[in-house]
Design goal:
Layout (H helix, E strand, L loop, with lengths): L5 H11 L2 E3 L13 E17 L11 H7 L3 E9 L2 E6 L12 H18 L3 E6 L5 E2 L21 H7 L9 E6 L8 H8 L4 E8 L1 H4 L5 E6 L6 E6 L1 H25 L2 E6 L3 H10 L3 E3 L1
Helix pairs in contact: 1-3, 5-7
Length: 288
C-alpha cells in the first residue's frame, strides 16, 4: 500500500498495542464470544428459571426439578457475547485541511482505537462519510490492510448521516471522530447515533489553526466544503467573533452530549501523541 498516510496508520497501530478499550459497565449484546450479555442464552453462567414453553430447547429442562414438582422448568443462562466497536469517521473536506496534521491524525487515531479494540477482543466496524456512510474497506483487518481513507468528501458529517446513516450494532460501543465544525443543532443527529448504544464517545479532532483565531492582517479564506474563496482583513473584532463562534459551537456539542449521555473530548491534531492520556482519563482506553 502506497499512501500519504501509511505511516500514520503504522504509528497508530503501534501506539494502540499499548492499550485496550475500556468496555462499558452496561451490558453489551452481540454475537457469541467471551463477554456476558443481558439476554438468556446458552453459556454455563446460570441466570434464572421459568416454566417450559413450546419450542424451548429440551436440553435446558431441569429434570431434577421436574421429578420433584412434576412441572417442566427451564434453566436460563446468560449468553456469552463478543463486544463490538463502531468507529464513525468524518472524512469530509474540513477534516482534510491543507498544511495541518488533521488528516494524518485521523488515520493515526482510527488505527490506534481499532488496535485497542482488538486487544480488548472486540469486533469492529469502521464507517466513513461520503454520499452517506459506508464501511471502510478491510475494516475487520489490522489497520495496515485498510488502504487509504478517502478524504475530502463534499458532504458534511450531518449531511452524510441524513442520506444514509451507518448500520450500527445495538448495545455496542460507538466512537465518533470529527472536527464537529458544521452549522446547526447537533442534538438530532447525536440522538440517532446514541440510540441503542452501550456507550458513545465523541472525539473532536481539531487542527491548531481550527482552535486559534487567525492572526491580524489580510487573509484569504476558502470554504473547504464548497471551494468558495473570500478575502478579508482580520482585525480584533473578527478574531473575537471567531473565538465566540467556536465557543458557542463547542457549547452546543457539550449540551448535546450531556442530553444523550455521550462523552465529549477535544484533541489537537498536532499534539495527538501527547494527548492520549486524555482518552485514559475519560475511560476510553486503558493500558493493555
Amino acid at each position: 500500500m502506497k499512501t500519504p498516510f501509511r505511516q500514520s496508520l503504522v504509528d497508530g497501530e503501534q501506539a494502540g498495542m499499548r492499550y485496550a478499550l475500556c468496555l462499558p459497565n452496561s451490558p453489551m449484546s452481540g454475537v457469541r464470544g467471551e463477554r456476558l450479555g443481558r439476554r438468556a442464552g446458552s453459556s454455563v453462567d446460570f441466570q434464572d428459571y421459568r416454566e417450559y414453553q413450546p419450542g424451548d430447547d429440551l436440553r435446558h429442562i431441569d429434570w431434577n426439578a421436574y421429578a420433584r414438582s412434576n412441572q417442566l422448568i427451564v434453566k436460563l443462562h446468560r449468553e456469552e457475547v463478543q463486544p463490538h466497536l463502531d468507529l464513525i469517521l468524518d472524512t469530509s473536506a474540513s477534516m482534510n485541511l491543507p498544511d495541518t496534521d488533521k488528516p494524518a491524525a485521523l488515520h493515526q487515531l482510527a488505527a490506534l482505537l481499532a488496535t485497542a479494540a482488538a486487544n480488548a477482543r472486540c469486533s469492529q466496524a469502521l464507517w466513513m462519510t461520503g454520499e452517506g456512510f459506508q464501511r471502510v474497506r478491510n475494516d475487520t483487518q489490522p489497520p495496515g490492510a485498510w488502504g487509504e481513507l478517502p478524504m475530502g468528501g463534499a458532504r458534511s458529517f450531518e449531511e452524510a448521516h441524513g442520506l444514509l446513516p451507518p448500520r450500527l450494532r445495538r448495545q455496542g460501543m460507538r466512537v465518533i471522530i470529527s472536527d464537529l465544525l458544521w452549522p446547526g443543532d447537533p442534538l438530532p443527529t447525536l440522538r440517532k447515533l446514541a440510540e441503542g448504544a452501550a456507550s458513545l464517545h465523541v472525539i473532536q479532532l481539531l487542527a491548531r489553526t481550527d482552535a486559534t483565531a487567525p492572526e491580524p492582517g489580510n487573509v484569504q479564506l476558502q470554504d473547504t466544503e464548497t471551494g468558495e474563496m473570500l478575502s478579508i482583513y482580520v482585525d480584533a473584532s473578527i478574531r473575537e467573533t471567531y473565538r465566540d463562534t467556536l465557543r458557542r459551537l463547542q457549547q452546543s456539542w457539550h449540551n448535546a452530549c450531556k442530553q444523550t449521555g455521550a462523552q465529549l473530548t477535544t484533541l489537537i491534531a498536532e499534539d495527538l501523541g501527547q494527548s492520549l492520556s486524555a482518552l485514559e482519563e475519560i475511560q476510553l482506553l486503558e493500558p493493555a
